[in-house]
Amino acid sequence: MAGADGDDSLYPIAVLIDELRNEDVQLRLNSIKKLSTIALALGVERTRTELLPFLTDTIYDEDEVLLALAEQLGNFTMLVGGPEYVHCLLPPLESLATVEETVVRDKAVESLRKISQEHSPVDLEVHFEPLVKRLASGDWFTSRTSACGLFSVCYPRVSSTVKAEIRQHFRTLCSDDTPMVRRAAASKLGEFAKVLELDYVKSDIISLFTALASDEQDSVRLLAVEACVSIATLLPQEDLETLVMPTLRQAAEDKSWRVRYMVADKFSELQKAVGPEITKNDLVPAFQNLLKDCEAEVRAAAANKVKEFCENLPEDSREQIIMTHILPCVKELVSDTNQHVKSALASVIMGLSTILGKDNTVEHLLPLFLAQLKDECPEVRLNIISNLDCVNEVIGIRQLSQSLLPAIVELAEDAKWRVRLAIIEYMPLLAGQLGVEFFDEKLNTLCMAWLIDHVYAIREAATCNLMKLVEKFGAEWAQNTIVPKVLGMANDPNYLHRMTTLFCINALSEACGQDITTKQMLPVVLKMSNDQVANVRFNVAKSLQKIGPVLDSNALQSEVKPVLEKLATDTDMDVKYFAQEAISGKLVFPPPAAETSLYVRFYRSGKPDDHAVFLSSSTVLSLALHNVLWCWGGYGWDCIIVGLEWGGPVFPSNLVFFFPPLVQYFFLK
Amino acid sequence: MSLSWCVCLSSHVSLSLPHYSCLSLGVSVSPLMSLPLSLYTHVSLSLPLFSCFSLGVSVSPLMSLSLSLSSHVYLSVCLSLLSCLSLGVSVSPLMSLSLSPTADIISTVEFNHTGELLATGDKGGRVVIFQREPEGKTEPFSQGEYNVYSTFQSHEPEFDYLKSLEIEEKINKIRWLPQQNAAHFLLSTNDKTIKLWKVSERDKRPEGYNLKDEEGRIKDISTVTSLQVPVLMPMDLMVEVSPRRVFANAHTYHVNSISVNSDCETYLSADDLRINLWHLGITDRSFNIVDIKPANMEDLTEVITAAEFHPFHCNLFVYSSSKGTLRLCDMREQALCDKHSKLFEEPEDPSARSFFSEIISSVSDVKFSHSGRYLLTRDYLTAKVWDLNMENKPLETYQVHDYLRSKLCSLYENDCIFDKFECAWNGSDSVIMTGAYNNFFRMFDRNTKRDVTLEASRESSKPRAVLKPRRVCAAGSKRRKDDISVDSLDFSKKILHTAWHPAENIIAIAATNNLYIFQDKLNSEMH
């Protein structure tokens, strides 16, 4: 035992144990996460007799502590003395399985399932199975819901008498008074069915399934749909018609849209589970009905499954079924009143072309694609554009290009910047599909226009897009079409555009290679080191650091170094700072990324709040040197909000703050 | 200032009654007394034999030196129509100096599903939970007595900086969740934010440190030669209240109702124009199921006044409007329930039409009967029972205070006409109850068609004495002894909030800052 090792080794463990009951949740959490260390120090004997009884009663704690505890106990077998003593872990997990917080309960059940495998068959019957029974007949629904998840792990390993008891308990829980327990039972029905003998599946499970599928609570019925998938896979084909299909048909026509939604959502799984014959006879009409459902949510879920459903149809009759049954419904959905339905369809409809082949695609699908490309909702158009590759393989993109171009241009100029952002992200894909000439002719100007968009996120995405295009079309193409335009922006009167040049160079240097970078880009960057705006200058320093590895060492020594040294003596402290960082070759700041965005709320003087930023007037002054777009408050306020455009977009409604040295202020919370 | 440790300062004042009931005034002087309690844990100790009221009053940092005395008074009165006994509690005269007298006005009353617990919310954002004493004690009258179980601050005043709006801390509604384990859960809401609270008991605490003794003195490290695992020791029962979830930022207008679905995993919250559906476990999203906001706010003609789920059909809910209509919606048909399944509306009598008819027809509360078959609504002058199967007119209409019809003009002037009276069913749906003015409340027996007016006041209801039926007569008509004239009614004393025990004849009546609990002792004709 650790006691013999002397005080030095004892001390950290003593601290950990004491912190198990510290007032600070974080310290308790920390201690619980190191529970294995404590147990190791105490030895298996004391862990069993002292630590576990204490943990069994600590269910008063915060959820996150309990969650960590439940997780730890799942890996505790060796620490209590191996499989022989694993049953000692049951009492604390049992009490955790009764708490009201679902995540804690689920974790406790998960750990119980884990350690059930470490029980010997005898221990399982002596210790584990009684625990399941206790939970199953508990007073509170929390314990009964937890029991539902444990039946399937102990059933295969117990004697037949105990098996009968377990089945009886499960039956009881399926008709429990509270909907929570019935939901838990319904969600575990499929799992339990898998471990049952086929005869019992037919005799027991089917009746439970039928009962749950006609429960008065919608939330129970919809879970029965999920169980339907696993039950159908277990049964032989000839029994499906009588045992499962009546219930499934009923679910597909349930009064509650939530149940129908669930059927639509699980349609592909159901289709695979019931096999081709039933699919042809039953599921096709059911699917048609779901596509025409009165609730938009159901139609959208069904529309999402159109491609998968068609793919999985039996090959001999696939084309005929699609053409006569599915396509008419799809045609209606193209002009649906609900945009979510249309966009769900648009995200999969292109996939039908590979299934139907060239002629059918041209004749039947193409008009639909074209209609969707002209849809009023940008999301629909985007979804079509994002899946162009499927069509390209079948009919070639030329068929579409006439309609495609206006659609792209319209999206590229959409008033919503998020729409513009989305289309930029598809540009490299489109460029690949359409080829260099088409791109140069029609889309190149768009790509350049995005570089001077007034929203930073668009400019940023545009630079990234250029990089991907260069990777696709090669350095030579870049040198002829992109680089001159980008470098031309270095003389723009707007300093934001000048900075964009730098960002583009950062992105392109690697793809363009040493030659272009040294001969064409570097001179421009160096020239910009004399810019009058400090932001441009320190971005020059950052750019030089970024492109340094691409440059040859000669240029580095003779051209870059003098400029950086000059910048290191700049009057602006940030320019100095970045220049020095570039010289010492360290990367200080993570690249601008959306993750660093922080929402800041504005607070009037009075109540300090953990969201607020408190700045001294000197900080405000130093901020003023930067790129402050707008500022709320001022020296008279004890809190201000500033908008800096440095590394990220500024949304008008919620300010996003991107100033890394100040980010620490936000983490007060 | 949620960090308030309620300290019982006053000694236990025994009253003249054979009962140990005491009122202790809770004072929190937060900055000085910030005891090492976790931020939201409010603890109240319950002492055996003494029913102890510990009331927390938060004091803002600016007034940290002033003592504020709470003027909550909880009276529990045993009543039957024949014999009625009550237990009075004397109140300190300092009460009138209370810094925020309105903060103590009770704004909602709600029994839990078993009736063992009763929760009240007040304008100051506090929730007080009462627990029924277990039966069979030596004290003959202690049976069924409700005593304070726990008190906590549920909501704090807030300020919406984007809209420059103050958000009151007043508790608009409390709803209990069906009990799921040894702890109790309740939802409380103010105008904007709904919170889920856990009320649990704790009777053990860990003892034994390695590096310090129980008083917190650091031990000499050299004396620590072996590890000690803390041991849980029994202690006095402590009631803990902790916030579990905060459902915020979903309501633009004022939340007027919350209702838990029979599936026990969802609930609805209704504001003036919208009804949202929440999952009890998910706080960051809710689904809008009803939206009556017109595209142009100038076209606004009606608002939602109350909403409730059906007691056992998980898909049905009802909402009432300021136009006097009820709409029953089926969530099965569509995700958005803009189209109602049934519209309950009584055709207006053209001859009775007046300037006030629209105001007084506004439904202030709607409640499903326990059987789920009937709906009880309350408008300004009447209480109505509707059958779910009959949409064109109410099954029964009860006049609550028809004598006010002639006084509507003055009631409009003093804004009383906008008072929102609640209504309640008894456990067997045979009697309904609703409040009125002058601390009167009314009960109507649906079978015998008898009705009674009772008064909840400390002056008139003697401890454990019979509550005498009261009568109000119209001005000028012949008066009997004890009758009260309409002109002498006190409109500032109104009973808006009432609750009926789910199974027994125990009622809770909130009259401004007093809570009365009446209990039926004998089988009376009424019940």
Task: Supply database-style keywords.
heterodimer; A: 669 residues; mainly alpha; two-stranded antiparallel sheet; 35 helices; 1% strand; disordered N terminus; B: 527 residues; mainly beta; 5-stranded mixed β-sheet; 2 helices; 38% strand
Structural notes for this entry:
- Chain A has a two-stranded antiparallel ribbon.
- By secondary structure, chain A is mainly alpha-helical.
- By secondary structure, chain B is mainly β.
- In chain B, strands 4-17-16-15-14 form a 5-stranded antiparallel beta sheet, with no helix packed on it. In chain B, strands 7-6-38-37-36 form a 5-stranded mixed beta sheet, with no helix packed on it.
- The longest helix of chain B has 6 residues.
- The chains are: A mainly alpha (669), B mainly beta (527).
- Chains A and B meet through helix 1, helix 3, helix 8 and helix 11 of A and strand 16 and strand 17 of B.
- Chain A: It holds the Pfam family PPP2R1A-like_HEAT.
- Chain A: Belongs to the phosphatase 2A regulatory subunit A family.
- Chain A: InterPro entries: 2AA_helical, ARM-like, ARM-type_fold, HEAT, HEAT_type_2, PP2A/SF3B1-like_HEAT, PP2A_Regulatory_Subunit_A.
Residue share in β-strands of chain B: 35-45%
Strand order of the largest sheet of chain B: 4-17-16-15-14
Query: Rg of chain B from C-alpha positions?
Result: 24 Å
The backbone outline of chain B, from C-alpha atoms, is globular
Uncertain spans of chain A: 1-6, 586-669
**Gross morphology of chain A:** flat
The number of helical segments of chain A is 35
Order of strands across the main sheet of chain A? 1-2
According to DSSP, the number of beta strands of chain A is 2
**N-to-C span of chain B:** 45 Å
Alpha-beta content class of chain B: mainly beta
Helix content of chain B: under 10%
Helix tally of chain B? 2
Beta-strand percentage of chain A? under 5%
> Major β-sheet of chain B, in short?
5 strands, antiparallel
* Protein chain pair with the most extensive contact, residues per chain: A-B, 54 and 46 residues
Tell me the structural class of chain A.
Answer: mainly alpha
How widely separated are the two ends of chain A?
41 Å
Count the strands of chain B?
A: 38
Average pLDDT value of chain B? 77
Uncertain spans of chain B: 1-73, 75-99, 522-527
